[in-house]
């Protein structure tokens, strides 16, 4: 009988952006095998369970195809809004990747700047054989 045990590694990252700008969230710093043609992205908001589909880079978020070709999953968020702030989790069970990113979005207020963490968002990326899950 052969047992296969999985080892997980966890990364924590803080990314700061300004309202209206773009940021890139990195899921993995190591090369992983992906097939772009199997990629579909679903955003789920933790509180309301609304699902937003982002297919082939439509809307304000996309998984960078040039990075996918290199075996890395990077999520680009454009035209940042204060409500984009929050925690994003990328989880790849088949590869033992558990990556958390805290996005801080700074906005211009009447007399200075402010930062908002926003709500928690979920991003599910079904790929051949495993799922990336951003919270």
UniProtKB/TrEMBL annotation:
It is a single-pass type I membrane protein. It comes from the Eukaryota. It is found in: Cell membrane. SUPFAM superfamilies: Immunoglobulin. The keyword Membrane applies. Its main location: membrane. This is Zgc:194627. One of its GO terms (biological process) is T cell costimulation. GO terms for cellular component: external side of plasma membrane. Keywords: Cell membrane, Disulfide bond, Glycoprotein, Immunoglobulin domain, Membrane, Receptor, Signal, Transmembrane, Transmembrane helix. Residues 19-92 form the Ig-like domain.
